[in-house]
Amino acid sequence: MTDRALLSGRDLAVWRGERCLFEELHFELGPAQLALLVGANGSGKTTLLRIVAGLGVPTAGSVTWKGASVTELTGEDRAEIAYRGHVEALKRELTVVENLEFHAAIWSREQAFEQVLEELKLEQVAHMRARYLSAGQRRRVALAMLMLQGAKVWLLDEPTTNLDSEGRALLVEWTRRHVAVGGIAVIATHQPDEFAMRGALMIDLS
Amino acid sequence: MKLPRWFHQLGSPPYVYRLADRLCPWLGWLGVSLLVVGAYWGLVIAPPDYQQGESYRIIYIHPQTAYIGMMSYVVMAIAAGIGYVWRLKLAHAVAVSAAPIGAWFTFCALFTGAVWGRPTWGTYWQWGDPRIMFEALLLFLFLGYLALRGAFDERDKADRVTAILAVVGVVNIPIVHYSVEWWNSIHQGPTILRAGGPAMTNDMLAPFLIMVAAFTLTFYWLLLRRLQGEIVEREGDARWIRELVGAGTP
Amino acid sequence: MTEFFLMDGHGAYVWSAYGITLAVLILNVRLARAKHRSALQRARELAAQAEAPRKQPTVRRLQ
Amino acid sequence: MNVFRAVLLRDLRVAFRRWSELAHPLIFFVIVVTLFPLALSPTAAQLREVGVGVLWVATLLSSLLALDGLFRGDADDGSLEQLLLSPAPMTITVLAKVTAHALVTLVPLICLVPLSAYTFNIPVAALPTLAAALLLAAPTLSVLVALGAALTVSLRRGGSIVGLLVLPLTAPLLIFGTRATDLSVNGEPTAAPLLLLGALAALAVSLGPLAIAAAVKVGLE
After folding, report:
1. DSSP state of D122
2. Which architecture characterizes domain A1-80+151-206 according to CATH?
3. Can you tell me the distance from the alpha carbon of A147 to that of A143, in angstroms, rounded to the nearest whole number?
4. What are the structural domain ranges in chain A?
5. Residue C24 contacts by C-beta under 8 Å, 6 or more apart in sequence?
6. pLDDT at residue B2 in the model
7. CA dist D67 to B249, D12, D39, D63, D91, Å?
8. Do chains D and C touch (3 or more CB pairs under 8 A)?
């Protein structure tokens, strides 16, 4: 059972000093499933998402991907989980293309990102330094990187911030398509109904 | 890797807390009595050194404090390493408890070493003596550890980051020690004084060893008392703490 | 008795060395005790407060 | 291997696009070196006596200046997280970043040192050994500085304590480095200290990245 592509968390708990953010949290996501993470600011959405990504360490409990703890993943298993935080991991001094080429080299993916850039209407700014991009454009480049990585699991932390309505629609559609073809997505958001679909898991931290 | 049962028992805070409560009285009283006996023997009964005279009596405390300082760093580094690898909160608690003790004793060793240097070599800060320089560097390592620990407000992160510094530090200690020794040998040539001073006659050896034992016992008493404080702090409102505190122990 | 303290001129060094060592020992004993006692005091305050409310998040499936 | 190359090239490119920041350690070095003759009497013999030590201490201090950009820049814009989550082992990435830092800060510094050796009228014959010693010390110094940066990556004002964390560990470098230069100034064989510097470099380059990678992982927890 464990080798089936399963992302599961068992009795997760996080304490900050004497304050408890959450405890005894269990969840299990199989292929083609979506989870929406909701809760007020500071309720621990980002903390939980980083724990699921394997960046953060819970005070108790563990998160496993295909049976192995997410903190011990290496090689291809590691590349199957994509995490997009509030900041877009763009070097301000590099152009959009240079940033994408760098990430392609890191995930050893061939660089077919021209098509994605067009869809995101970024082809004019492709050779502009990331420092001169607007917040919305930077968000779109982060989306391009997400597509480039081609990960099975998407962990997105409030991905719709700074995106205009057109960008949001694109994101929602891509997420739906990603889940439809068997991908897993965990999205921390303040507008869950934007992504809501039948069978989605709703994790409310507040 | 299956760890032996006692290792797990050592890993459970309530067990260690009660163990410390049982051990501390013995360590404390034995340590203090040995300190008194050793000091009296060293100051009054033992003969002065034919070469250095009375100031030689500092040999009954300086090497001991230096040895405790060094041992504290090793205890700290090993505990921090175990805490980091096996994620044992208790091991981090031991490391945190050992650090300030080590820093204080290294400072004390530095002071007594410098004071001892005054009559023997004519200066307070004898660059020639590699041990003084090594003590100073060890003190900086301790201060670095304590400063780094103080810079974090979240305890878990502070534990794991300072653990890395402690392990890197302990790997560097032999390197620093031998490079300082090497540096001293080229500048001053073989010192007339053997590292430990002139050979100790038997009646000097006895108080020396008593003081070593006394300082070791005191170190463990201090370590366990601080460890108990750390354990209570780290366990927060765990059930066994509520019972312990509810029972209103001192 | 005085020549015992004078230690033919080396007295100042010997006694200051023993003095600082004694001071460090006593200081550490007090610090260790204070740490233990304040931790227990803090634990008493925590014990007095009610058990922290359960913070289990709700996990439900959308229909 | 291409991850090493990718990270190295990226860091070099970013560094050169912010080239003004590269100059800070060099300027600091020159200032420290020129201040010392002011503080001491300008007699040739005494300056040479002190000069070697001053050059080495100035090199240690100015290498500390450039460390903030090593990890903090990546941590703030989120790329350090992505590097941690990438399939490549973090030690390779860290090694690439340390190499980039060494090339960008220490190599120019090493080129500068022989020039400033003139101010302390260190004989020209000693310059090759001085440069060799600095080159051998560069990897160890870079690893130590990178470790200091990694340990304080999540601290806002981490820079202030890195000196306290790193400088005690540079004592062996200082001892062997100055010794090698003194020996060459007196024309004696300098093999021993240089070999010891080489040994330290081997240890630093092999074990250092493990500790640095661990420190970065914990720093971002």
Report:
1. -
2. 3-Layer(aba) Sandwich (3.40)
3. 6
4. 1-80+151-206, 89-150
5. B65, B104, B105, B107, B108
6. 66
7. 50, 14, 28, 7, 18
8. no
The answer to whether B115 and C7 have CB atoms below 8 angstroms apart is no
Angle of helix D107-119 relative to helix D44-65, nearest 10 degrees, comes to 160
Type of residue at A114: E
Chain A touched by C61 (CB under 8 Å): yes
All residues at 6 or more sequence positions from B211 whose CB lies less than 8 Å from its CB, including other chains:
B34, B35, B38, B39, B42, B60, B61, B64
Q: Which strand (E) or helix (H) includes residue A202?
A: strand A201-204
Using the beta-carbon criterion (under 8 Å), do B144 and D218 form an inter-chain contact? no
Kindly tell me if the per-residue pLDDT of B54 is higher than 90: no
pLDDT bucket at B172, cuts 50 / 70 / 90: very high
Whole-angstrom Cα distance, residue B167 to residue B187?
A: 31
DSSP secondary structure letter of residue A71: G
CA distances from B173 to A118, B134, B151, B169 (A): 58, 9, 23, 6
Residues of chain A contacting B154 with CB distance shorter than 8 Å = 16-17
What confidence score (pLDDT) does residue B193 get? 44
Q: If DSSP codes are grouped into helix, strand and coil, which group holds residue A25?
A: strand
C-alpha gyration radius of chain C: 28
CA B114 to chain CA centroid, Å, is 19
Chain D positions touching B186 (Cβ under 8 A) are 179
pLDDT band of B123, cuts 50, 70, 90: low
Residue B128 has pLDDT above 60, yes or no: no
Radius of gyration over every alpha carbon of chain D, rounded to an integer in angstroms? 18
Distance CA B85, CA B60 (A): 38
**Residue B245: CB partners within 8 Å, gap ≥ 6?**
C40, C43, C44, C47
Express each pLDDT in D137-162 by its tens digit: 999 999 999 999 999 998 887 667 88
pLDDT at residue D205 tops 90 = yes
Q: Can you tell me the mean pLDDT for A18-42?
A: 87
